[in-house]
Amino acid sequence: MLAMKILISLQLLGLTLLCVGIFHCQAWPRYTFVVEETPYRRLCSTKNILTVNGQFPGPTLYARMGETIIVDVYNKGNRNITIHWHGVKQLRNPWSDGPAYITQCPIQPGGSFTQTIMFSSEEGTLWWHAHSEWDRATVHGAIVIYPNKGATYPFPKPHAEFPIILGEWWKEDIGQLYNETIQNGGEPNVSSAFLINGQPGDLYPCSKPDTFKLMVDYGKTYLLRLINSAMQEILFFSIANHTVTVVGSDASYTKPFSSDYVTISPGQTIDLLFTADQSPNHHYIAAKAYVGGAVVYDNTTTTAILQYNGNYTSTSTPSLPNLPFHNDTKASVHFTGSLRSLADKNHPIDVPRKITTPLFYTLSINALPCLNNSCAGPNGTRLAASVNNISFVDPSIDILQAYYYHVNGVFGTRFPNFPPLLFNFTAQDLPLYLQTPKLGTEVKILKYNATVEIVFQGTNLVAGDDHPMHLHGFSFYVVGWGLGNFDEDKDPLTYNLVDPPLLNTIAVPVNGWTAIRFKANNPGVWFMHCHLDRHMSWGMDVTFIVKNGKGLGAQILPPPPGMPPC
Question: Residue 365: beta bridge partners?
């Protein structure tokens, strides 16, 4: 009875008590997420959006490296929802990873699901977001993972730190936008605005009074936890008259380097230090789209204000930073290519050297025929996307459940290691027959502890584009990249195997290639997809099944109670 009273008291305090035996107990922080419709006014009009706890962006989660937290998700919205903890490896626990129809069926309106978020080696900034249709446009928030108690940052402690979440806003309902795009088969309407911490900024109508302001003291150094939650665009980011020092990305520390701009892909996080070392004034913080492909995009600029504390007379209009041009691929890849792992004695790395599973994956935009050329894609076709010419189709129940309970007929296991058709992937004029993919729900099986190399090759089918690829359940080392076609004889000789960045999301450049390596030491079902949501919805997805290893510590944990029904 006493133990029960203690447990109830701790739950009321937001803690869940895990007891092993009689005397060894551990308190896990517990959060409540209520997904609900909330009215928000932006760009002179009000609409209902899905939020968590009425907040946009949603609440920030805090943890220390290696901790576990519990999140009770209640769906009081008007459509199905799932929540994904982006970049959290969730060792042996795919049940709480979140992608709809991959590791769970969605939480239906009126339903709930308790998710266990198990941190391991992550340290820095990650984020959480909806992983069903396009609801992550408004259902998202930051995750801050501090060092273990007694440990410190590998850089001087900042005076203060702030999450900076970049996003997109549509005047129309995001669910309606998704349905229209899927039904007509064309490109989605471009966003109405970009956002910084939920606000469009001074350059948009009806937005100036609510522009986000970052208040700083002269001479102090600050840590910005930058997150790109945008749905469809890679973004350039900069602070007028200030340089930033990159110190981390995707919850992994990097060798510090300074830059006057940042390129950040959807799904990616970057930790930045900057010092308020200019004459006290107001300075614009700004972000705009980088678009390497020949696609329609939102060409507006979102702003926030960096405002120095103190008594002074500010200039009438803050100065804008010098962001690269929208189509400056050189600037984009230069920044991303500058990332290096910190790789010191306190933060060692372990790059796989002997590869047991080499994979070569082409990333393509495709076109499917429509009856009477009635769709909104090129020449009346329906736009699609593929990996190795397979356009992924969602199953009727989630793949994890089908795999764990041996349900036949849900997925196939013949995802190809190499593209079925070889051609000049980045040529300007490619035969039309290459544009049509195969549709299927095929998975790639990986042996436990396999050392995997994936070479992503962008193609110029339909229209070449950048592809920020995100892998669930793992971080990976980015060992090489380049523009044009990958050369299997020459390019591996240029790999960085000394201090490659450890990431969970990497932009494969337009008509270029990127090579990653990781060890398949996390048993379960894990999704990989392009984080431009139109490409993901069109089928640029792969599901991996990592087989169990020997011993309990190398096997999938049993499913929790209360999994959402299919």
Answer: 385
Mean pLDDT of 39-62: 98
Question: CA end-to-end span of the chain, whole Å?
Answer: 37
Q: For residue 333, give the H/E element and its range.
A: helix 329-337
Tens digit of each residue's pLDDT (9 = 90 or more) over 373-410: 999 999 999 999 999 999 999 999 999 999 999 999 99
Residue by residue, DSSP assigns 111-122 as: -EEEEEEE--S-
Q: Please give the angle made by the CA atoms of 363, 367 and 368, to the nearest 5 degrees.
A: 125
What's at 322, amino acid-wise? N
The predicted structure's pLDDT at residue 294: 85
pLDDT at 17: 52
At residue 241, the 3 state secondary structure works out as coil
Q: Using the structure block, give the residue that is written with the tokens 């696609």.
A: 295
Q: What local confidence, expressed as pLDDT, does residue 6 receive? A: 39
Torsions phi, psi of 521, nearest 5?
A: -105, 20
CB 95 within 8 Å of CB 400 = yes
CA dihedral sign, ordered 503, 416, 495, 346: positive
Cα separation, 75 vs 73, whole angstroms: 7
Give just the sign of the alpha carbon dihedral 160, 222, 249, 210. Answer: positive
pLDDT at 137: 98
Phi/psi-derived region of residue 185, left when phi > 0, alpha when psi is between -120 and 50, beta in every other case: left
Q: Determine the number of helices (DSSP H) and then strands (DSSP E) in the chain.
A: 5, 33
Long-range contacts of residues 51-55, Cβ cutoff 8 Å, at least 24 apart = 51/138, 51/139, 52/139, 52/141, 55/141
Whether residue 369 is predicted with pLDDT greater than 50 in this model: the reply is: yes
What gap in Å lies between CA 166 and CA 42, rounded to an integer? Answer: 15
What does the pLDDT read at residue 26?
62
Contact 412, 443 (CB under 8 A): yes
Give dist(CA 409, CA 312) in Å, integer: 70
CA angle 555, 559, 560 (to 5 degrees): 130
The residue among 430, 481, 482, 465 whose CA lies nearest residue 536 is: 465
Give yes or no for a contact between 563 and 100, defined as CB atoms under 8 angstroms apart: no
Q: 564: cis peptide before it, omega within 30°?
A: no
**Between vectors from CA 394 to CA 100 and to CA 289, what angle results, nearest 5°?**
70
Helix (H) or strand (E) holding 181: helix 174-184
Virtual torsion, Cα 269, 127, 322, 316, nearest 10 deg: -150
pLDDT at 48: 98
The DSSP annotation for 354-366 comes to S-SEEEEEEEEEE
Q: Which pair of structure tokens corresponds to residue 546?
A: 């990592």
Tokens of 378: 């090129």
β-bridge mates for residue 226, sequence order: 164, 270
pLDDT value at residue 20: 37
Report pTM: 0.95
Q: Is the pLDDT of residue 2 over 80?
A: no
**Structure-block tokens of residue 117:** 């978020």
Closest CA to 90 of 406, 454, 557, 530: 557
**Which H helix or E strand runs over 142?**
strand 140-146
Q: Is 554's pLDDT higher than 90?
A: yes
